[in-house]
Structure formats: C-alpha cells, structure tokens
C-alpha cells in the first residue's frame, strides 16, 4: 500500500472518522479480484446475506446481496494482495489511533441487478467488536447511471447532508462502524465489492 494513500486515510480518520480514497487498489488487482469474485459466484460459492449476528436470517427487503467470506490464507494472488493491503492499513491505523484492531473479517459481496441495502449502521446491537468498516469496490466502468451508489451520512445523527459515492473499481471507503449511517441504492447492474470490518477483541 502506498504511503501517500495511507496518509490520506489516516488524515481522513483523524479529521472526521471516515475517508473515500479512489484507486486504493491498482486496476490489475481490481481486475483479478473481480474475475475471482465472479468465478466463485458462478460456481455457487456465495450465499444470501443475513442481518445481525445471530442465526442468519435472510431479509431480502433489507438487503439483497450475496456474500462469500474471505479466508486470510486464500492462495489466490489478487486476494493475497487485498489481504496484504488491508493488513498494512490495520497496522497504520493501530499505530496512530490505538484502536486495538486485531483482525479484519471481510467478504465478497455481489448485488444482483435491482438489489440494495437499506440504511443501517454496521455495528451489531449484541456485538460491539466491529470498529472500522472498509469497503473496496470491484466494478468496471461504473457510472452514476448504473445506480448502486453508497449513500453516506457524515453526521452521526443519520440526518442532514448526504454524500453519494460511486462504487468505482479500486475505490476504498472506510469509516467508524458505530457512527455512520449508510445505504446502498438499488443497483441497475451487477455490483461487486469486498466489504470488511476491522474488529477489536
Ligand atoms: C455493508 C454495506 C456498502 C457497500 O455490507 O454493510 O453497507 O457500498 N456495504 O457495499
Ligand atoms: Mn454497512
């Protein structure tokens, strides 16, 4: 991970608790991850995402994505590159903010056309270990017309100003999981992401 990138993320977290960074992952890595994500999805490795931390209840009115958890020892080179980049980010964040992040749990997410994820916070009511959310998009040539924008509320009240983020391939979005409301607007074509949470013990 580039030092300039690390510094942008650290400054964003220090100033406001969130950051959007285009081109966090180089396009060759994004292409590798996208191909792998689609191949595993086509092979039937994904399952419907649930809501909350309990026995996974499928709630398609709330979210319609399919997910596949990432194993840290996944041998695929592009997946290893993602694991390495997010590990560098974890160490830098811990060094600067003493958040005590000890691991990243992350999954591939595929939003089929027409699906969305309603406005929510990432921290579970019964489990406060999720501390820093990290999303990396894997989409090729995504524009606003494709929908699937990440709508983000910079005010922790979840009201007022909204920022709409285009899920362009390689873009990183990171924010404190307990503070920020966000939503995925309906995607007009298949939308791919790697979504993770750095956890405290
Ligand atoms: C999530 C989520 C946002 C996105 O998986 O919790 O909010 O842009 N994802 O994919
Ligand atoms: Mn979320």
Descriptive account of the structure:
The chain has three helices and eleven strands; from the N terminus they run H-E-H-E-E-H-E-E-E-E-E-E-E-E. A seven-stranded antiparallel β-sheet has the order 1-9-6-11-4-3-2. The mean pLDDT is 94. It has a single domain, classed as Sandwich (Jelly Rolls), CATH 2.60.120. Helices cover 25% and strands 27% of the residues. With 201 residues, the protein is of the alpha+beta class. The protein binds N-oxalylglycine (OGA) and manganese (II) ion. N-oxalylglycine (OGA) binds next to strand 10 and strand 11. The site of manganese (II) ion has 3 residues, from loops.
Based on helices, strands and strand pairing, what is the structural class? alpha+beta
Computed over alpha carbons, the radius of gyration is 16 Å
Query: Helicity, in percent?
Result: 25-40%
CATH topology: Jelly Rolls
| Strand portion | 25-35%
**Element order: H for helix, E for strand:** HEHEEHEEEEEEEE
Strand count: 11
Task: Pick out the low-confidence regions.
Answer: none
Second-tier CATH architecture: Sandwich
Which SSEs are present, and which pair or pack?
Blueprint: H1 3-16, E1 18-21, H2 27-42, E2 47-48, E3 66-69, H3 77-97, E4 103-111, E5 117-120, E6 130-137, E7 150-152, E8 163-165, E9 172-176, E10 182-184, E11 191-199
Antiparallel strand pairs: 1-9, 2-3, 3-4, 4-11, 5-10, 6-9, 6-11, 7-8, 7-10
Helix pairs in contact: 2-3
The site of N-oxalylglycine has 10 residues, from strand 10 and strand 11.
Annotation keywords:
201 residues, binds N-oxalylglycine, Jelly Rolls, seven-stranded antiparallel beta sheet, alpha+beta, 3 helices, single chain, binds manganese (II) ion, four-stranded antiparallel beta sheet, globular
